[in-house]
Amino acid sequence: MEVQLAGIADESVTDGPGVRIAIFFQGCRHHCAGCHNPQTWDFDGGSAYEVGDLLRQLPDTPLIQGVTLSGGDPFYQPLAAARIAEEFHARGKDVWAYTGFVWEDLVQKNDAARLEVIRRCDVLVDGPFVQALRRPALQYRGSANQRLIRVRESLAAGEIVEWSPGQNCIDLD
């Protein structure tokens, strides 16, 4: 299976708690005004990777707390995103994903591939970036409409349970 990526940051401290690997997926149709990564919009940009080869190349050290799937939007390449998330859980790492889709649409559309990505995430940061709601002081998000959602708890409760700093991200049952 191939994945189209805009880039990889092996040691990010801005895309979730702790030191993380941030994987920037290529391709996005949200086209948010003021987007931090507009170079990721073009689905033909970036570089193609074989997912297995990519996973073997990414560091697996105790210093890395988790992986962040960003972009672009990883939900446009859900099979690859789910496979990457699965591997990082197997490594004992937490998984965050950023998307311009909102939780309610992702869960209610009944798209099996996208639901699989959600199920493999610990925290989902949802919603498009909205320039008028930009708040630089917000942690791990760019605009006030975006939510940090604890995935497992939200699926179990049938309503959004938000993550807040200081909470554990991962629950690897």
Which SSEs are present, and which pair or pack?
Layout: E1 2-12, E2 19-25, E3 47-50, H1 51-57, E4 64-70, H2 78-90, E5 94-98, H3 103-108, H4 112-119, E6 123-126, E7 147-150, H5 151-157
Parallel strand pairs: 2-4, 4-5, 5-6
Antiparallel strand pairs: 1-2, 1-3, 6-7
Largest sheet: 7 strands, mixed
Q: Could you tell me the mean pLDDT? A: 94
Q: From the alpha carbons, calculate the radius of gyration and give it in angstroms.
A: 15 Å
Q: First CA to last CA: what distance?
A: 27 Å
> What is the CATH H-level superfamily?
Aldolase class I
The number of distinct structural domains comes to 1
* CATH fold naming: TIM Barrel
Helicity, as a percent range: 10-25%
Helix/strand structural class = alpha/beta
Summarize the structure.
The chain is α/β, with parallel strands linked by helices and 173 residues long. It has helices at 51-57, 78-90, 103-108, 112-119, 151-157; strands spanning 2-12, 19-25, 47-50, 64-70, 94-98, 123-126, 147-150.
Protein described:
It is a single chain. The protein contains five helices and seven strands; from the N terminus they run βββαβαβααββα. It has 173 residues and is of the alpha/beta class. It has a single domain, classed as TIM Barrel, CATH 3.20.20.70. Strand 4, helix 2 (78-90) and strand 5 (94-98) form a beta-alpha-beta unit. The longest helix has 13 residues, at 78-90. The chain is globular and about 35 Å long.
